[in-house]
Amino acid sequence: MLRDITLGQYYPIDSPIHRLDPRAKILLTVGFIVAVFLVGSLPGYIPIVLFLVLVVRLSRLPVNMMLRSLKPLRILLVFTFVLNMFFGTGERELFRLGFIVVKEDGLMNAVRFSARLIFLVVGSSVLTLTTAPVTLTDGLERLASPLKRIGFPAHEMAMMMTIALRFIPTLTEEADKIMKAQSARGADFSTGNLKARAKAMIPLLVPLFVSAFRRAGDLAMAMEARCYHGGEGRTRLHVLRYRRGDAVAFGAMALLIAVVVLQGRLQ
Amino acid sequence: MAAPHIQLDHVTYRYSPEAPPAVRDFTLHIARGEFVALLGHNGSGKSTVAKLINGLYQPSEGTVLLSGMDTADAQYTWDIRRRAGMVFQNPDNQIVGTRVEDDVAFGMENIGVPADEMPGRIAQALAAVNMTAFADRAPHLLSGGQKQRVAIAGILAMQPEALILDEATAMLDPSGRRDVLETVRHLNEEQGITVVWITHFMEEAVPAGRVVVMHGGELAMDGTPREVFSQVDRIRSYRLDVPPMTRLAADLAGRGIGINPNVLSIDDMLEEVVRLAHHC
Amino acid sequence: MPITVENLTHTYQQGSPFQATAIRDISLTIRDGEALALIGHTGSGKSTLAQHLNALLTPTSGRVLLDGRDINNREVSKRAVRFEVGLVFQYPEHQLFEETVARDIGFGPRNMGLSEAEVDARVRAAMDMVGLSYETMKDKSPFELSGGQMRRVALAGVLAMRPRILVLDEPTAGLDPRARDYLLGDIARLHSDGTTVVMISHSMDDVARLATRVAVLEQGRLVMEGAPNDVFMQVDRLGAMGLDVPAASRLVHGLRARGIDLPDCCLLDELADLLEKLLKGGTGHAS
User: Fold this and answer.
1) Are residues A93 and A81 located together in one domain of the fold?
2) For chain B, which domains are there?
3) Residue C81, Ramachandran bin (φ over 0: left; ψ between -120 and 50: alpha; else beta)
4) Nearest chain A Cα to C51, which residue?
5) Same domain, A21 and A80
6) B214-267, pLDDT tens digit by residue?
7) At what angle do helices B266-279 and B244-254 cross, to 10 degrees?
8) Are C276 and B259 in contact (CB under 8 A)?
9) Beta-carbon separation of B171 and C255 below 8 A
10) Which end of chain C, N or C, is more open, meaning fewer C-beta atoms within 10 Å of its C-beta?
11) C-beta neighbour count of A164 within 10 angstroms
């Protein structure tokens, strides 16, 4: 049964990182990405690694969970590594194997780009693993709300994301049921060539769309009946407030960026 | 006499100008604190009436007033919807929040209740529907009956005066149905909330103070459950059932047994049979 | 003996933190030509059991035999099993997808690899079985029908495969009284024409009307089984499980408590006969 899947990849435990304000976490993630891109040389990654280890330890996330987030990337990682390694343009040749030439700068680049990719993915998965999707949405809405003045529909975007999150389990369950019901009529979703399989999806997709539209209509009516009329004049149950933890986190991030920048200067 | 709480006068409603009216010249006055069961087969117009009461639809002809406010008057729209809360048929399609608590807050957020007032009102509303223990659960993991009670809590938190349940039990199992009906009866009796209970389950109309039957978009019958259900043939001509014990009494009466046809419940029937058995 | 369920257990998401055993060690035989009702509280495992009868779910342990063959055996075609054991899901109208009623009903037969002429013949016959007019309805879009009609189209879509055994999950849920009566009439007719029927229902009055045998599930176990009269007269035991009892059985039970002894009964029409006999100076006696 699909109904018990956790949404997104949120890992619901309590930790100092989980407790941070979602706005802070989004900004810190952006800060972290900037720091990673500021690194100019291999030793520059040392503070990044230390920072990341510290954050992961504080978040109490299981390490294998973090590694799992890298799994979908493995092909891209190998590709990045190999490509960079073989296309060095520098002078110093490390070794030669038939027509394959590996140069020093090629190897350096390979390590650097792969490391960058790993840090970016691990860093941002700390954000999604420690923040419930709805909280994340909330944070995004608040951060984007100054943009309302130039016509950016921050509230509407956030409401749409919340509703999508709310209905993913319902529609997943529905898809499961329709698939079974059509299988009971002899539908075959798993064999045949690509074209046959695409065609076999029609009996699943049509009812699913019909259902999604019916649900959307019902929901719109129910929201209206509960006085929903856009973001204007709306109050919120959860008021976001920056706390001391957030200040500490911003401080740590500033320190990290400073260290990375200084290290670049020293070389 | 006090003005009716809910007042529909000669209301006609068409979904589109060329369509036949879904509701036709319909007049119904409901007093504050009443529990009215509105019955009718699918397509009889009962759901349309529900949506007319809180201004989701506006009448093509006639007027609908809630506490004296005209639903066609835009300045009252949000006030009317806050005062007359609606619960819909499909429990899945009316829950907005990803946690029970967030969903109960949704209506309050819309009408601008201050943040520090919300937790108290949420706690009260959840207690009233007996769902306190579920405050931080994900709604999609609840049973149908629990979801409908969450929906009711979301309305209660807005401090309504009337509750309109549009076939709110149609998709529930018997125990879910009982829980929701019990919850609503309790709110009606304890808090004096006016209830319009729309259903096609006849047993659910038995506890109502008043039963209104719709047929073809028109008002067909209006009276106490006993008055309405004792007219077995008429009810059936409106494509509805009568409660099983009323049906049995009618059957026995037709066989020449001197039974009181005003039987509604098992207890009524037990009494009648015991009384008749003593006679023979 | 068309279907034999042997020590069937099903655990969802085994090995994950969400592991849940829906049915445990159920053994049950579904006999040719009977109408078996599965009743039980929501979450008692009725639907899980039903989805094993046509191999939509694979047992965690235990076996399901159709005519003595294990339907989860590699050599047995699951599709062939599904054509023999037709399963109608709850709210089956939600699975309609074709442009016309006839094409939707023909989906199953077409998957069976039948000729277009045969498919058409089956569509006509299935529509006839559920009381839908082929001529007026075949070219309509299933999405413009009423709820009751959609339900019957969906039922016809399973019947068109000519299953020997028809499994229905809550066939009357959400229908108004008239549509419910029509549908129950269709099922009763299919049953009397020789189709074996397995029906899940919360409506005990529907069960009393249709079933020749009732099996009660509680927390994934089979706890009671027998003729409707025998099962439904155990009013207190069913009540303790949170289950409803047909109105007729409740009345008989109540009358017995008041010293009026009537035979076991779960149907109102039968009860009317019994009461008539009693009250017109028959066999009953008051205390």
Assistant:
1) yes
2) 6-241 (3.40.50.300), 243-280 (no CATH)
3) alpha
4) A180
5) yes
6) 999 999 999 999 999 999 999 999 999 899 999 999 999 999 999 998 899 999
7) 30
8) no
9) no
10) C
11) 12
Architecture of domain C3-230: 3-Layer(aba) Sandwich (3.40)
Partner-chain contact B266 C243, CB within 8 Å: no
pTM: 0.88
Residue ranges making up the domain that contains A191: 156-234
Chain B residues closer than 8 Å to C286 by CB: 274, 277-278
Closest CA in chain A for residue B117: A237
Tell me the C-alpha distance between B56 and B50, whole Å: 9
The interface predicted TM-score (ipTM) is 0.90
- The pLDDT assigned to A67 comes to 78
C-alpha A188/C-alpha C112 separation (Å) is 11
Whether residues A97 and A12 fall in one domain? yes
> Residue C174: its chain B contacts at CB < 8 A?
170-171
Clarify whether residues A112 and A101 are in a common domain: yes
Which of B66, B48, B45, B44 lies closest to B57 in space, CA to CA?
Answer: B48
Residue A116 burial (C-beta neighbours within 10 Å; 0-12, 13-18, 19+)? middle
Provide the 3-class DSSP secondary structure of residue B86. Answer: strand
Is a pLDDT exceeding 50 seen at residue A6? no
CB C234 within 8 A of CB C227: no
> Residue B165: CB partners within 8 Å, gap ≥ 6?
B86, B87, B180, B184, B195, B196, B197, B198, B199
From the candidates A5, A135, A136, A227, which should be mutated to test the interface with B, based on the most B CB atoms within 10 A?
A227
Closest CA to C246 of C211, C273, C207: C207
